[in-house]
Amino acid sequence: MDGTNLIQDLAIVLLAAGFAGSLCKRVGLSVIVGYLAAGMLIGPYTPPFSFISDVDRIQTLSQVGLVFLMFAIGLGLSLTKLRRMGLPALIATGLGAFLMLNLTQLLGVFVGWTFMQSMFVASMFVVSSSAVIAKIVNELKLSHEGSAQRAVAITVMEDVVAVVMLTILASQTQSGGEGANVGSLLATMSAFVVLLVGAGLLLVPRLLRRLEARADPELQTIIVAGVLFLLAFSAAKAGYSLALGAFLLGAIVAEMPQKGRVEKAFAGMRDLFSSVFFVSIGMMIDVRLLLDVWPLILGLFAFVMICRPLACGMAMIVCGTHPREARRAGLLLTPLGEFSFIIAQLGVSTSVLPPEYYPLAVGTSILTVLATPLINRNAEPLLRVIERIEPRWLVRALEAYHGWLQQAQNGTSSPLAWKLIRGRLPQIGIEMLLISGLMIFSGQILKAVESSFATGWIEGTRFDYVFWGVIGFVILILLVALWRNVSIVIMILAESLGQGTRLPAPIVEKSLRALSGIGLGYWLYAILPIEALPGWGWIVIGVAALVVAVVFSRRLVYWHSTWQSSVQDVLNEDPDGAVGVRATARTALDRGLEGWDMQLDENIVPDDAGYAGNNLAQLAIPSRFGCSVIEVERNGYVITRTGPDLRVYPGDKLLLLGNAQGLSAAREFLLGEKKTAGETTEEFSGSILQTHVLPEGPHAGKTLAELQVARETGVRIVGIHRDGTKIINPDGAQRLNANDSLLVVGTFEELRNFRRWLKGGGETTPPFPTNPAPGLPARS
After folding, report:
1. Any alpha helices (H) in 141-253, and if so which ranges?
2. Is 778 helix (H, G, I), strand (E, B) or coil?
3. Rounded to an integer, what distance in angstroms lies between the CA atom of residue 541 and that of residue 539?
4. In this predicted model, which residue has the larger pLDDT, 770 or 646?
5. pLDDT tens, position by position, 492-517
6. CA dist list (Å): 637 to 77, 685, 692
7. What digits encode the pLDDT tens for the residues 545-555?
8. Which burial class, exposed, middle or buried, applies to 645 when counting CB atoms under 10 A from its CB (0-12, 13-18, 19+)?
9. Torsion angles phi and psi, residue 632, rounded to 5
């Protein structure tokens, strides 16, 4: 009857999740709220609705849901996407998490939490819900705003922070908690991640290509699922969370052309088991405890709504975002999400947190999800209040810092030596982490291989020598490549230091080589598992490795280069198409339109549009409606050169820029009286809007027709702000004066050409003048 009871329990869980999720979706809430409510309703703590006969079995199935959920999150966050988000977004995410972590720990001192309890609660609060934020951005039509795109970039990066925190907390609870060395744990986890990702990038692409060649989607789904559970199990056996292995496989598959098929194949299983996961979390919530801790829930809700915008906004300001835009993005980063539940579940299951922290985490999260849309609908009045009460000295200090940072970014150039070595440093770091991972986890790999394959093949000590011989050979390939990279860096540094210190370059180079050799030797000694073999065994392996390195050095370098090339090919593939590249490449660059009294609007050309096939000159949108056609998206590709001869076709998405009245008239013309069913609110993925100041120089005093800015740089000037007056869509006869604020639109490369055209004199300024004029004369 156990099997029948399990089927009965699954039926109850899924039906309850479906009904509750549908109800929440109808009233505009996240389906996750419905899943949690369903779990509370049918769970063991809510009689007489305790329908589940075997709660432990459902909890086990929820771990399957966790694996699929983390795999889906990894699929949405590829390694290439992280690289394209840029260093400022990465630093801002880490700094915001650090500030929030310290603020929560400070709160824990006053509340009386232990160190580990403070760490768990802080980990719940450092991560926002990317799904909720994306939904709010789309509903409020903020996808064109630079602040919204910064918020989306940071919330995506916070998923990585959450995985790291989850792994650290799981390892600390297993190792006894407060005595664990976080620095050593992070270093070991980094080595494990690099080892797993390196092996995955080497093997998974080949596996998927072979499966794709067989044209059997059923086998592909089954084998990928098997690899998914194997990596999750490997992460758990290595002392980390199941979530880490599943997340890493998702990030690896996200780099490959087969991503779309895999994502589609796993969508059903992800939805099924993730709903079981969230329902199981709801089942563990005791409603009576929820009523007991509601004052603490309200207090933590207020803490999150105040401290998260402050921490995230300050982090973005430090990384170069304008203060007003950083505050606007901070308001979007308040809702807590699924990671808060996962971390709370871990804390309660390991007895670090008391049982009432389950409903505490869920209640706080639900309140933030409900409050965030309300706050962001009224963000502009709230920001104006903040600006009025903000001390003037602080405003001047932040503006001065922002201006200094922009001047430093635009005016300084890196030394030649740094330009030559900066590409080698990540390679050195990755190779060291790979070697560390192989050394640190070699004992666990050996046990796994012995238990699976070695029985009856090679007995005892012989197998140990064979295993360490293979590991030594792999490490030797990496060591040869590592030393080559280190030697190149030393050679460049020696030449640079020799010029600066007047020391002979050969002496500097030999000294650096000696220091590097000593350092690498000490590092290898520190990570070498000496107890695995007797001393003479290591001597034999070391001598053999030295002979192989001398005799076959070129072959070793060739093998390393082949692996590196295959990994690079995977990372250079674009599974998302041109639109995804554009969206991620400029997430931290787009500027908003506050203060210009202009808006952006998307319109999809209907299938039965009478003007389909006409070019933009025939449509005459600028002269008829006072709007500019910024770009056209067609079949997933963005056309930014919207000349008068560009024709529009059904399904094209036109991005228009203008005032509210003009956009409304243009929409009425483009869409007609009836609504279009194809209209979507996808994430903005086109041109960049920036404001620049025209400096004194040869361009001042000339008309736009004389300057031919579009022909010279590719950008278009769509607005001029001069002495409190704004000129929208200026014509060719408009003359530009020094210190005019120019609103320009173009791609990242075109804006770079425009800054060169300004000859370094065009300082980028906030796209919102401090004293907006009441009138807005438009030019056609």
Report:
1. 146-174, 182-213, 217-237, 242-253
2. strand
3. 5
4. 646
5. 887 777 665 566 777 878 888 888 88
6. 21, 9, 27
7. 777 777 776 77
8. exposed
9. -130, 125
Contact 123, 169 (CB under 8 A): yes
Q: Are 81 and 573 in contact (CB under 8 A)?
A: no
Q: Per residue in 416-440, pLDDT tens? A: 667 777 777 877 887 887 788 777 7
- CA-angle at 404, arms to 400 and 410, nearest 5°: 145
Residue in the block written with tokens 């173009």: 746
Cis, peptide link before residue 48, omega less than 30° from 0: yes
pLDDT value at residue 216: 67
**Nearest-angstrom CA–CA distance, 486 and 509:** 11
Closest CA to 171 of 127, 126, 130, 123: 123
At residue 416, the pLDDT reads 67
Query: Residue 299: in which H helix or E strand, if any?
Result: helix 294-318
State which of 307-316, 522-531, 765-774 shows the largest mean pLDDT.
307-316
103 in Cβ contact with 307 (< 8 Å): yes
Which tokens is 104 given?
Answer: 């929560």
CA angle in degrees (0–180, nearest 5) for 740-776-632: 80
Q: pLDDT of 436-495, one tens digit each?
A: 877 777 777 777 666 655 445 555 556 677 777 778 777 887 888 888 888 888 888 877
Q: How far apart are CA 588 and CA 84, in angstroms?
A: 10
The mean pLDDT value of the chain amounts to 76
Strand residues in 488-574 grouped as ranges (E): none
Torsion 292-295-296-298 (CA) sign: positive
Angle at CA 625, nearest 5°, toward 624 and 627?
120
**Could you tell me which residues are beta bridge partners of residue 653?**
604, 633
Three-class HEC string of 413-446: CCCHHHHHHCCHHHHHHHHHHHHHHHHHCHHHHH
Task: Tell me the mean pLDDT in the region 537-552.
Answer: 74
Token reading at 2? 């156990």
The CA distance from 741 to 595, in Å, is 12
Residues contacting 8, CB < 8 A, separation 6+: 53
Measured distance CA(540)–CA(553) in Å, rounded: 19
Q: Per this entry, what is the length of the chain? A: 780
Here the tokens at position 4 are 């029948």
So what's the pLDDT on residue 310?
A: 92
Dihedral-angle region of residue 672 (phi above 0 means left; psi in -120 to 50 means alpha; beta otherwise): left
With contact defined as beta carbons under 8 Å apart, do 17 and 65 qualify?
no
* Closest by CA position to 772, among listed 689, 663, 704, 691: 691
Q: 386 and 369 in contact (C-beta within 8 Å)? A: no
N-term to C-term CA, the chain: 77
Using DSSP, state whether 645 is helix, strand or coil. coil
pLDDT for residue 645 = 81
Indicate the DSSP class of residue 452: I
* Residue 638: strand, helix, or coil: strand
Model pTM? Answer: 0.59
Spell out a b/e string for 407-433, using b for 16 or more CB atoms within 10 Å of the CB, else e: eeeeeeeeeebeebbeeeeebbebbbb
Contact 319, 92 (CB under 8 A): yes
What CA–CA distance (Å, rounded) separates 486 from 595?
52
Tokens of 420: 């030559």
